[in-house]
Amino acid sequence: MGRGRGGDAARWLWLVIERTRRRIVGWTLGSRGQAPLRQLWQSRPVHYRRHCWFFTDEWKAYAKVLPRWQHRPSPKGGGQTSIVEAINCSLRQRCGVLVRKSCSFSKSLAMHTARIKIVIDNYNLTL
């Protein structure tokens, strides 16, 4: 799982990435707290919640939501979250609303979400 900035409003883009295929299999917009992460976790199919490991940075919300036996926290620079960081960078290049100080930031959360969904769907189709 990973996170990235969602513009100037205090919204973060939380991502679930399938490491082998680099496919985005889940995402949500929200604060940096536990609630959006818990929502994202509960929206995953049972297979992901029971049989996968989750490599994350050491953000404290992960330890409170993800099961301890599946959670693999990795220190900054450890390399386990580099795939998510690369995908965040790729998404920022493709979608102006993900750039922090952008003139293209959506004023409507619905439009913001729709634009991100289109970019993520397109990203997954190009894999």
UniProtKB/TrEMBL annotation:
InterPro entries from the UniProt entry: Transposase_27
Protein name: IS1 family transposase
Source organism per UniProt: Hymenobacter artigasi
